[in-house]
Write a structure and sequence with these properties.
Blueprint: E1 2-3, H1 10-37, E2 48-51, E3 57-60, E4 63-70, E5 73-80, H2 93-100, E6 107-108, H3 132-136, H4 151-154, H5 173-203, H6 211-235, H7 253-325, H8 339-358, H9 361-382
Antiparallel strand pairs: 1-6, 2-3, 4-5
Helix pairs in contact: 5-6, 5-7, 6-7, 7-8
């Protein structure tokens, strides 16, 4: 998750997202070309780029795990998309944006993890000699530092390595935990943006753009689908164990760790679904406001047309009489006639026009005809 440090309007954000999508296409093409040529050894991979509002964007990288059981041992292979520094690989939208605005203002936020009683266990977890620069292949001044690249430095220090044999899923606990913390931190940022946009549109009398809500709704739905897959994997973890779960009422350490992961990911899934519903509700609200605004606009236009119609009831009869008096027929010959003739003709026509304007003559006639018919029917019944 990065912070360029500049703000953007909804239109600018939409334009930046379109440009970022094109830049990601070029990045994937260049990455595939470097893979084919063998020049991409150790290059970091970015799966998705989410541009928010100019102050924050996020890159998506994955951790892929393959675990196989064979005889009396298990084989686990872990692929992490983090390799060399992103600045050393193909240029992506994060680099294009930094070069355009100011690379010194773009900073990748670290993934913050909260571990229980970590302060009491610090003496048992000394840092390895492998430095951050050696792990990430970048310098400390590189703005595109990747937190996942540091997993290899201290991995497993919070786990009991003796339990890895009996429960291989337990050995992957810190990977799942890191992913959950990273996603939770991303949701915190998205929720803050969502609440900020919601307050802005609630206090504004104008209909705001719905693109931000639709964009974030798609992000929540994408991650919700991924979380469902992870939850399914955690729930079926017993198939990976070499020993059957104990029937004792007390949970073992691997079982407790798996239960914690399951609870955390279910909470993340519920949060993603809830935030997605909030985005959907805001889109519906803005669409309703747009419809109301269009209805009010149509009402105002109808009122203007009504005023024009009322003026027409005055000037159309005057225009008719003026044209009639201007014909070269007797008694309106070349010598003309008195002006009061025109006034005498115009006054009744204007009066008739106002009667038609004030009352619906057709409806009155229909009501009169209906009344006459009902009166005749009552008279026939009395006879």
């Amino acid at each position: 998750m990065g912070s360029p440090g500049t703000r953007s309007t909804p239109d600018e954000a939409t334009a930046a997202r379109n440009a970022s999508e094109k830049a990601m296409g070029r990045y994937i093409h260049n990455l595939n070309s470097s893979l084919d040529s063998g020049r991409a050894l150790g290059t970091s991979i970015v799966r998705n780029f989410d541009f928010q509002d100019g102050t924050h964007f996020a890159i998506e990288q994955r951790i892929s795990i393959c675990l196989t059981k064979g005889g009396d041992h298990n084989t686990t292979i872990v692929w992490i998309d983090t390799g060399k520094a992103l600045s050393q690989g193909p240029e992506g939208p994060w680099r294009d944006y930094s070069d355009k605005h100011n690379i010194n203002h773009t900073v990748f936020h670290p993934t913050i993890q909260v571990l229980p009683q970590i302060a009491l266990k610090a003496h048992r977890m000394p840092l390895d000699n492998l430095s951050q620069d050696e792990a990430t292949g970048s310098s400390r001044n590189d703005p595109f530092s990747q937190s996942a690249a540091l997993l290899a430095c201290d991995y497993g220090k919070t786990l009991d390595t003796k339990l890895f044999v009996t429960d291989p899923f337990y050995a992957l606990h810190e990977l799942f935990l890191f992913s959950a913390f990273s996603l939770s931190q991303y949701f915190n940022m998205l929720e803050s943006k969502l609440h900020s946009d919601t307050k802005a549109q609630a206090s504004s009398q104008q209909v705001t753009d719905v693109s931000n809500f639709l964009y974030r709704q798609s992000i929540f739905e994408r991650h919700a689908g991924w979380l469902r897959d992870v939850i399914a994997i955690i729930e079926t973890r017993s198939s990976l164990n070499r020993t059957q779960p104990s029937s004792s009422s007390t949970e073992s350490t691997p079982q407790q760790a798996a239960r914690t992961l399951l609870v955390d990911h279910k909470q993340l899934l519920a949060r993603a679904e809830n935030l997605s519903r909030q985005c959907r509700a805001q889109v519906s609200l803005l669409m309703n406001r747009a419809m109301i605004a269009e209805s009010n606009k149509a009402i105002r236009q109808a009122r203007e047309v009504t005023k024009l119609t009322r003026l027409a009831f005055i000037f159309v009869p005057l225009s008719f009489t003026a044209s009639f008096c201007g014909m070269n027929l007797r008694p309106f010959d070349v010598n003309g006639g008195p002006l009061w003739w025109w006034l005498l003709m115009s006054a009744p026509l204007i009066a008739i026009s106002f009667v038609v304007l004030r009352w619906d003559v057709v409806r009155l006639w229909q009501r009169y005809s209906t009344g006459q018919k009902e009166a005749k029917d009552r008279l026939n019944k009395t006879k």
